Amino acid sequence: MKHFTLILAGAMVLALAAPTFAQRTHPSPGGPPSSPGGRPSGAGTGSNANSGTSGAHDGGAATHTDMSHASPNDVLSHNTAIAGKIHTLTGQDAQAACDGFKNLGQCVAAAHVAKNIDIPGGFDALKAKVTGSGGVSLGKAIEQLSPQANAKAEAKKANKQASDDLKESNS
Questions:
Q1: For residue 116, what pLDDT band results from cuts at 50, 70 and 90?
Q2: Are strands 47-48 and 53-54 parallel, antiparallel or unpaired?
Q3: Helix 104-116 and helix 151-170, axial crossing angle in degrees, nearest 10
Q4: Running DSSP on this structure, what letter comes out for residue 121?
Q5: Could you give the CA distance from residue 55 to residue 32 in angstroms, rounded to a whole number?
Q6: Out of 37-46, 53-62, 84-93, 154-163, least confident range
Q7: Could you tell me the CA-to-CA distances from 34 to 38, 41, 78, 82, 94 in Å, in that order?
Q8: Exposure check for the chain: N or C terminus, fewer CB within 10 A?
Q9: What are the helix (H) ranges across 23-170?
Q10: Which of 24, 34, 70 is nearest to 49 (CA)?
């Protein structure tokens, strides 16, 4: 009888805990270029684009929404801090600079690469390689435009800088 009670109690715990685990976000294995955080373009239900957080849960906690994968124009219209950073890096209006990029993180990373290393043609040339017809990855664009640079290291460095900028601007 004790075994039956123990098994029944364990089954109840699992049955009651399953909905809690189903509500957690699960990161995708794809990494930064696709969709880290597992969120599609734009924020999920209950999002507030102004604050970068989703609605508060019953316990009063709020979760962070990753706006780096929303349309650059959507984010820039609400986030003047990151818009200013892009302007500083590129010398261009942030909306114009990021036009054509898949997401804001990609735009900010390209702006950092252009600032970090001497790319012939600067940000505009890098943007054309990444966003133009037959667009390539940031690393490939660096290899093509500046063969002497360590493209992999520079792309990694720029992605880290972009991630830090986006986190900083959302706080």
A1: very high
A2: antiparallel
A3: 120
A4: T
A5: 24
A6: 53-62
A7: 9, 10, 23, 21, 22
A8: N
A9: 72-78, 80-90, 94-98, 104-116, 122-131, 138-145, 151-170
A10: 70
- Burial of residue 90 (CB within 10 Å: 0-12, 13-18, 19+) is buried
Mean pLDDT over residues 58-83, rounded? 60
**CA distance linking residue 163 with residue 171, whole number of Å:** 13
Q: Which of 79, 59, 61, 62 is nearest to 70 (CA)?
A: 79
Phi then psi for residue 48, to 5 deg, are: -130, 100
Instruction: Return the minimum-mean-pLDDT range out of 71-75, 84-88, 165-169.
Output: 71-75
pLDDT (tens digit, 9 = 90+) per residue, 8-65? Answer: 665 565 555 555 544 445 454 444 444 444 444 444 444 444 434 434 444 444 334 4
Tokens standing for residue 51: 């604050």
Cα 171-71-106 angle, rounded to 5 deg: 75
What are the residues whose beta carbons fall under 8 Å from the beta carbon of 41, sequence distance 6 or more? 69, 70, 71, 103
Assign residue 134 a region (left: φ > 0; alpha: ψ between -120 and 50; beta: otherwise): left
**Pick from 54, 49, 53, 90: which is nearest to 73 by CA?**
49
